[in-house]
Amino acid sequence: MTDHTARRPNNAPAEPEAQDAGPADVGTSQTEEAKIAALVETLAKENAEDKDRLLRTLAEMENLRKRTEREVSDMRQYGIASFARDVLAVADNMERALEALDAELRETANPATKTLLDGVELTERELLKVLEKHGVTKFEPKKGDKFDPNLHQAMYELPDPTQPAGTVAQVVQPGYMIGERMLRPALVGVAKGGPKPAPANDNPDAGPQGDA
What we know:
6 strands; three-stranded antiparallel beta sheet; 212 residues; 15% strand
């Protein structure tokens, strides 16, 4: 019987056998891993930079929002400053008109005049209420208060020996604040030539000491 099984000729080349990866293949694999690691590091760095830029942008937007709100609030509160100063002139005139009448004239005035004075006083109070409603408040220093250049404007000096030097001796015109800002300082006369203000650490209860 004839054997039909295929046979390899004696001179046919042998099939190549599987071989282990050589040094070149190992080097190539390490190079690829290094490239991937470098790419991951670069992406992580770019991600961190993008996150930092985003946080900075959000912080700037928040600061801008707060600044805009503050500017709008200031505009609402202080935008009437010029108008309020003009209105104060009306309040000053009313106050001067009322001060021109002493108590005796008020008592001897006829009913019509008293009604007129009551109306002027009522109008003055209502005007001050309207100013307060819009953040404008009146302040009037007292005699003997220490002169404060942030609140007071000195018009003249008074040689009053009964008052400590550098204190308010007379109030010429009250002052006004708008919010936390000065709208108009109080006009005052400042005492000159009096005793110096007592130091803050003096004990007013301590009496004179006798001789030892």
